[in-house]
Design goal:
Elements (H helix, E strand, L loop, with lengths): L1 H13 L2 H10 L12 H4 L4 H11 L4 H11 L3 H5 L5 E2 L8 E2 H8 L8 H11 L3 H7 L5 H10 L4 H16 L5 H8 L8 H10 L1
Antiparallel strand pairs: 1-2
Length: 201
Amino acid sequence: MAAARERLLQILEDLTAEEFRKFVFHLESIPDRSVRIPRGKLEKVSPVELAELLARYFPGKELEVAAHALGKIPRRDLLRDLGDVAVGDRPSGRGTPVIDLVEAAAVQPSCVSQQQLMKLARKLGRKWKTIAIEFLEVENSRLEQIEEENHKDVVMQAFYMLCEWRNREGGKATAANLYLILDQVGVNLDHDAYAFLRECA
């Protein structure tokens, strides 16, 4: 499968920096939960290193895993570049074309729900306003209105701020995108908050 790995590397190198971060993020939600690349190995990983990790942890299935992550981004144009490369062994002796796996895996991610935003709001604490201004770019005038309408209730203030962000972003308001925004230097949420966002994606 050397040729398949070379094609995988080409695709990884064609991703933008933001798309590459999303690709790495979605490796956390692959269907086969019995195998995981340790998170520490994915930090600051390069395309070459990631291609090697996929080949090591998912031998013979690296393209299937890549198809799942690419479908989530989504970059269907790159998925088509995989063509009819076969993945895995079947009783018939033939593999499954990657493109068939792509069609099954490439489901448009849904927006975060109000219930999910409420759970996250409880984890933001008093950092919510700083996060709103510096990272979610919510207008200060709207934040002042939210504070006035929910006097002394920090959780509800954070919740309505997150709702404001979701309404503005529309279809882009997914758990994956929210994770990528909040997984920056300066946010510093606790581990449970990040774990929650990964589970929601």
